[in-house]
């Protein structure tokens, strides 16, 4: 994942911003008696990318991945429209407690940028992903970095069209969505009223997008490590922040670990899960890696 990559991560202030003033009130209004639900995973299960994870002789990468993690941020669906049969195969290979969080195809978000002609494509995408049934988690839309607030009407139309029974998160990558207070408040209100998660992206080179504003009872966090020792401190800070949000009423944590070079994403994930379990009193399985003796790389 090259988005927000920097050459010298040691020069970056990685301290998490304070919460947006409205985050606490959103959690207070949307909390329920339901148990805390936590999904932590990587963005892919490809053996070539995830070094120090798959034991020698692993025959099916997804089967093994799903034995260690309870979820996957399914980036593959961004690059092509998979048929329903492929989703069925993924469904059949994973245990009952496994959840997929697929990204909407780039034809919708990047090629046509939410123009009116995306809706037939979106319909095909939704029909295929529905094959995942109860294993389908929040679908997320990642908008192009040049998709700015001039496209507001397209966002409104997309939200209006989106089926309310399907969970959605949206990632806005143009900083003007957050620079202007009026624009930001309009956006937050639209997402809140439609129960859509405001995706939080934590990456080294784009601290301007780290808004810490929840719009429903879901923390959908896409964390991008810098392949640097600071990654572990950053993840520890995230575990503390999620603990704080849990105390304020958060019931849904969806946290996905990336790196600019994905080699050690499973190791980072294991370290994060270890910290999160202690802070929020959960018992998420800590994935095994080939470097389990330390739970740190650096």
The low-pLDDT segments are none
Q: Helix content range of the residues, please?
A: 25-40%
For the largest beta-sheet, the strand count, sense and barrel status come to: 4 strands, parallel
Task: Just give the CATH class.
Answer: Alpha Beta
Rg over alpha carbons: 18 Å
Task: Give the strand content.
Answer: 5-15%
Tally the beta strands: 9
What is the average per-residue confidence, as pLDDT, rounded to a whole number?
94
Q: What is the N-to-C succession of helices and strands?
A: HEHEHHEHHEHEHHEEEHEH
**Number of helical segments with 4 or more residues:** 11
InterPro entries: DUF72 (IPR002763), UPF0759_sf (IPR036520)
Pfam families: DUF72
What do you see in this structure?
By secondary structure, the chain is an alpha/beta fold. It has one domain (9-280): TIM Barrel, CATH 3.20.20. It is 36% helix and 14% strand. The chain is built from 11 helices and 9 strands. The strands form 3 sheets. It has a 4-stranded parallel β-sheet with strand order 1-9-8-7. The protein has a 3-stranded parallel β-sheet with strand order 4-5-6, with helices on one face. A two-stranded parallel ribbon has the order 2-3. α7 links the parallel β4 (139-142) and β5 (168-171). It is globular. The mean pLDDT is 94.
